[in-house]
């Protein structure tokens, strides 16, 4: 099994790029059917979601816009339980369908926090698309409309996800070796 080193940790290949690609195709196919008349605003949650959002958007064939917010809740290999908003949303979303694009829903703290924040701006609907979901780690009752892959409760890097800033550029996803 392929291994890599990032800073002081070793990681083993767990999700090859080909599996990520397949999950994206399936998600886009579903979105293309369900959202074709919604003219949604897609919101990429930076930093982690930059690669997932860029690849997914290339497979979307309905009219839509994209915007970006920057949130942070994870430090090192764990959730702080608190969400810091580093860049907010400028667009008007009242009466509009919004689709949140997340690389991962882990504890669910980040996505729940953003959904609560957006709710006060009275959108028509808020949908969530996440490439990865850790069901065993999730503490929040959030409805996930589009899920690429369910994964175990282990720390991962690659495809946008980092370990202390490193590894976001990797095309595959790797799991930390204890
Ligand atoms: O479900 P949660 O436990 O809230 O974890 C999910 C969040 O953690 C990661 O972001 P992070 O805080 O690491 O910031 P980053 O995207 O800049 O890496 C990821 O991109 C999600 O936004
Ligand atoms: N890099 C990384 N960031 C996360 N944010 C929430 N869960 C994770 C994870 O497993 N890895």
Automatic annotation (TrEMBL):
Keyword tags: Cytoplasm, Glycosyltransferase, Magnesium, Metal-binding, Nucleotide-binding, Purine salvage, Transferase
Gene3D superfamilies recorded: 3.40.50.2020
Broad EC category: transferase
UniProt GO molecular function: guanine phosphoribosyltransferase activity; hypoxanthine phosphoribosyltransferase activity; magnesium ion binding; nucleotide binding
Location(s), subcellular: Cytoplasm
This protein's record includes keyword Nucleotide-binding: yes
EC number, UniProt record: 2.4.2.8
GO biological process: GMP salvage; guanine salvage; hypoxanthine metabolic process; IMP salvage; purine ribonucleoside salvage
Matches recorded under SUPFAM superfamilies: PRTase-like (SSF53271)
Catalysis performed (reactions): IMP + diphosphate = hypoxanthine + 5-phospho-alpha-D-ribose 1-diphosphate; GMP + diphosphate = guanine + 5-phospho-alpha-D-ribose 1-diphosphate
GO cellular component: cytosol
Cross-referenced NCBIfam families: HGPRTase
Name of the protein in its database record: Hypoxanthine phosphoribosyltransferase
Native species: Marinilabilia salmonicolor
Organism phylogeny: Bacteria, Pseudomonadati, Bacteroidota, Bacteroidia, Marinilabiliales
